[in-house]
């Protein structure tokens, strides 16, 4: 039976026309599946379904997602990421505040620490990522003391926040890639308006809790809060993280934006 599958041009180019046509005809596509983004059941015979191709260094894995969660696309990952993500299918989310290790250096000498957690705003839980470098970040091409982390983000469209009483505005062009039920990257606009590129990318996909993932799929966006080194620290519980965020905001050391889920 034909499937309600979306096969993007990029996926078709990777798997070939013959395989793509077989998928659309229902020969190689499953009827029921677990969405690679929200991890809830889907049915390609009853609802629009995206084909998502994860491409590693040596192998590739074709996965399926609700069209409302992810578009059909090719996701480039390392072989280690791919194998880890495959092993994680069917597993539950990890503990709160699990860091991604090692973390991407942005710019060259600065290392970004990323923590996931739920933030309560106006009586509703929102998924959040808190980003804090492990050392001061200076503007590219400059040297010496100083920390330009927040000014650089403000130039990208992030806004200073005085508190966590309201949801920050959406920053279009940026997005959060949540795939195979795990956090893979924060994407920023590519040079000259090209394809998005990774601003931060997890070397190993970051486990998130079921509650965080459910909130992300409900709101179709993730709140990103960023603060300079020494502002937040490693907090083992969400209540302590919230206190640190409130303190950083009160001190004028916090910027934020709402980032759509990638492709939504």
UniProtKB/TrEMBL annotation:
<protein>
    <submittedName>
        <fullName>Uncharacterized protein</fullName>
    </submittedName>
</protein>
């Amino acid at each position: 039976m034909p499937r309600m599958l979306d096969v993007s041009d990029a996926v078709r180019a990777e798997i070939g026309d013959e395989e793509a046509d077989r998928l659309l005809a229902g020969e190689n596509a499953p009827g029921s599946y677990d969405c690679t983004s929200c991890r809830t059941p889907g049915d390609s015979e009853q609802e629009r379904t995206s084909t998502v191709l994860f491409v590693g260094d040596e192998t590739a894995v074709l996965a399926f997602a609700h069209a409302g969660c992810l578009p059909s696309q090719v996701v480039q990952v390392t072989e280690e990421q791919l194998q880890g993500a495959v092993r994680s299918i069917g597993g539950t989310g990890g503990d709160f505040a699990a860091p991604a290790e090692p973390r991407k250096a942005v710019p060259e000498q600065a290392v970004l620490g990323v923590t996931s957690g739920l933030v309560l705003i106006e009586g509703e839980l929102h998924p959040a990522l808190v980003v804090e470098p492990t050392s001061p970040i200076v503007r590219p091409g400059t040297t010496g003391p100083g920390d330009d982390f927040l000014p650089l983000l403000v130039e990208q469209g992030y806004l200073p926040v005085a508190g966590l009483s309201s949801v920050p505005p959406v920053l279009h062009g940026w997005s959060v890639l949540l795939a195979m039920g795990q956090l893979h990257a924060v994407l920023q606009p590519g040079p000259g308006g090209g394809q998005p590129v990774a601003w931060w990318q997890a070397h190993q996909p970051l486990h998130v809790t079921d509650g965080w993932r459910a909130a992300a799929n409900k709101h179709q966006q993730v709140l990103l809060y960023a603060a300079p080194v020494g502002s937040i620290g490693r907090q083992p519980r969400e209540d302590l993280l919230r206190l640190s965020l409130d303190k950083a905001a009160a001190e004028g050391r916090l910027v934020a934006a709402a980032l759509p889920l990638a492709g939504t």
